[in-house]
Each structure stands twice: as structure tokens, then as C-alpha cells.
Amino acid sequence: MTRNYRQLLLCAQRARNLHRVMGGYVRPLFTLASYGHNRLIQQWKDTTFQFNGVRLYSMPIQNVSDREKQVVGAEVEKDGRHLVITWMDGVKSRYHSLWLRLSCHCPKCFQAASNMNLIFMEEIDSRTVLERASVSDDGLTISLLWNPGGHSGTIGLDYLRANIYDPDALATRHRLTTPLFLEEEDPIPEVSYEEVNASDKGTYKWLSYINNYGICLMKGVPTEKMKILQVVEKIAPVQRTIYGTVFDVVQESTPSNVAYTAVGLPFHMDLVYYEGAPGLQFLHCLRFDDTVKGGDTTFVDLLRVTGEFRKRYPAEFKVLTRVPVIFARIHSTREHPVHIVNERKHIEVNEAGEVVRVNWNPGTQSPMAVPEEYLDGYYDAYLKFASMIKTSPSYRKLRLRPGDLIGFNNRRMAHGRTAYEETAGGHRHLQGCYINIDEFKSRVQVLSLTVGDGSLAKRVFNGSSF
Ligand code: OGA
Ligand code: ZN
Ligand code: ZN
Question: Which ligand is nearest to the CA of 118?
Fold first, then answer.
């Protein structure tokens, strides 16, 4: 296979992925293949952000010659309550008159420069219906007239196509944002410090692994103090916590956390007592001498565990979605005393019953504060879940080496550590920090659009269903 041909195939693959996301807009792009690979990619990049007023799912390809052919018909239903668009590829989509009114892209309703709404629900009469709809000659927009109020405005067809909200389209979107699991035999995905530093593509590879599998090991990071900041800030500014910007995992005589001693740590997620617990956690191994006994790092994918738990113990699963537990960090003898108390469920689900967030940290869980009759059921469910964590096929254990930087989604993976002993002058030293989950997801999405395959970022278990 020649290099060019391979590149072309890669393009085709990207286009297909984008096609899946967009539901059919990309096909005309193939007609541009004769422009050559670089031109094509440039076009891709330019068009990605060129179009004002299109939200996340929209990645319009403009200036495509046979663009006007994309819509076969646009009809207002008799009562004016809906618009039905028939697209070239046979897809039919239906839009509510108020949905359309709120999506009006005229300058009165929408500020293109900031990509934000200027029209709000309470300014619209809830009886608003459509009077008229017509596709523009260039096939890029649809003009609409609403009554009462007599407002007329336009909406990009890209926008309408990208935001189809029928059950099939939503199911597709959901599928495309579903993360992957490591198979039983799969090692933790790895990237090298060099490749991540070399290009945005390398950075995207690293972050896609974390987004897909919840974890990625970076090898060959220089073992300099605070180097972690430089690497991790390729994503976003680090999320400062009560443990500082960067924390040192070493044995301390007056530890502010049990992690800063040599004891073993059970599976946990860090700082779940925060309203917004840190999103990603990174641990950079600066020193880990051979003479240190133990100190292995362990991981388990709680997303997988909750799935298995639900299947095996449906009643107990429900208990953990309903009984409130308290996570707290109360520590008055540290340099800056803290007193953080929050209530959560171990497993949070959305309307459809899907897991959207997990909260697990035995070390910071406070005494239960629920009526007595809940306790037996709760403790039973807790123990079953805890035992499934320990035996999950997603269990991974590794001994970090100097130069390793392990990164993981703290909303999805639980981590732990076996106890260790520093014998014969041996020493173990990790530096850690966090990244906000939204800023991580944003970075993955932007990189996917600019240097990646255009796919949607996967769900990150921050409470959101998409
Ligand atoms: C932590 C932690 C693990 C380790 O600092 O939160 O879990 O391997 N450390 O020391
Ligand atoms: Zn308008
Ligand atoms: Zn931890």
C-alpha cells in the first residue's frame, strides 16, 4: 500500500466516523479528494470551526458544491406545531415549533460571536406555531416564520441535521459516547512522553486512551520534581485541592492523608467528599527503589463493576442508588484545618437507570445518618459491591517505575496501593495532581475535531448522561 493511498484510506475512515456523528453530511467531501490529502485535511480543519452558531455535535462542512441537494423537502405540519425535513439520504426528521423558535439563529435570537443564545423560553408564547418554512437557494439554511409574534428567522440545515432528536438519533449519539472496557488480557494502554510532547496527535492519543478506557500509562517522563505540571498542563490548568496544586506521596511524620504513610490503601476514588471531585488523577513516579518492598498500585474500573453488580444483585444495586452516604474530610490538626462534609449515593443513575456517576472511598466515609431500618440492607449491599470490586476482571496491578506517569479518570476508576516498607535506605516518591473533568472532556473533544477522527468524546461519569 502506498503512503498516499494509506492516507486516503485514513481520510475515508475519518469521514465515515464523522458521517456517523453527523448522520450524513460528509459524503460530498469525497468529491474533494482530488485536492490532495493536505488540502483535504486543511479544509476539514477550516470548516470545523468556521460556522458560527453550531454547537458540539455540529461540524459543518461548508462550500461543498452539491450542498443544495441535501434536503429534498421541508414541510410544516397542518397544526404548525412541527416541521418535517426529508433529507437526501432518506432520513426524515421532525422538529417542534418551540424547539425551532429557541434555535433561531437570527442576530436578535443568537449571538454568533460568542455562540450563545439571546432568546429565552419565557420570552416566547408557548402557543407559538410555524406559519411558513422555505429552504434557501444555496441549500444552507431554512427560513421560518412563527406566529403569534410574527418573528421570522433562519436556522442552518447543518444545525438541524446535527441536532436531530428522534429516539434513533439519540440512541446513536448515546452509542457513540459509550466508553470502552479493557478486555481481560489487555494491558493498561501506554504512550511515551516523547510522542505526547511531539504533537497534538500524540496528546490526543494519550487523552483518548484515558477517555476510552479510563486509564493510560505514560513512560519515560523525566524524573524531575514538578515535571508533572508541565506534562499534565497540556490538558488544562491543574485542579487545586486541599492537598495543594501538586502533592507528594511520601511518608510523613505528621501526614495530612493516610496516603502519606506506608500503609496499604483500599480501593478508593480521591476526594469524593468534594461537590466536584477531581476528574483525572495523575501520579508521577520520581523514585521507587528496588529495595522498597510492596507499594504496588492497583486499579479497578467501577463502571464495569457497577454493570456486573446490577446484573447479579439488582435489588442491592437499587439500594446503593438510593441510600445516602456521607463522605467527609474533617481534620483540625493539619496546617490549614479542613471541614468538608457532603452527602452522595454510591451509585448515581439517570432517568433511564444508567450509571452516570460512582462515589467510593471507604477511608472518608462517615457514620451513616439514615433511619435504622435502612442499615441492614445497606451494609449487605455495600459488602457485596465491595467484594465484586476486589474480584473484578478489570483489576490491574502494577509497580510504578521511575519515569512512569499513570493517569486515570477518578470518576470511573478506583485505585489503591499495597502497603510498603522502605528497606535498606530504599525510597518511594510519587508526585500527583488533578485535572477538572469538564476541562479534560473539552480538551479531548477539541483534539478529536482538530487532529483526531472527529469522534465524540466518551462519557466521563460526571453525572451527565452524554
Ligand atoms: C493517593 C493514592 C496511591 C499510591 O495519593 O491518593 O492513592 O500509590 N496514592 O501511593
Ligand atoms: Zn430570531
Ligand atoms: Zn488516592
Answer: 2
Domain-wise residue ranges, the chain: 48-175, 190-450
Q: What is the dihedral of CA 74, 78, 82, 85, to 10 degrees?
A: -20
Taking residue 350's Cβ as centre, other Cβ atoms within 10 Å add up to 13
The closest-lying atom of ligand 1 relative to the alpha carbon of residue 296 is: 8
Please state which of the four CATH numbers 3.10.20.90, 3.60.130.10, 3.60.20.10, 3.40.50.150 is assigned to the domain occupying 190-450: 3.60.130.10
- For the stretch 272-289, pLDDT in tens is 999 999 999 999 999 999
CA–centroid distance, residue 104 to ligand 2 (Å)? 5
Q: Which atom of ligand 1 is nearest to the CA of 295?
A: 8
For 48-175, CATH gives 3.30.2020.30
pTM: 0.85
Instruction: Return left, alpha or beta for 425; rule: phi > 0 is left, psi -120 to 50 is alpha, else beta.
Output: left
Expressed in angstroms and rounded, the spacing between residue 162 Cα and the centre of ligand 2 is: 19
In this chain, the answer to whether the domains covering 48-175 and 190-450 adopt an identical fold is no
Q: Is 433 helix (H, G, I), strand (E, B) or coil?
A: strand
**Which residues, by Cβ under 5 Å, contact ligand 3, an ion?**
270
460 C-beta closer than 6 A to ligand 1: no
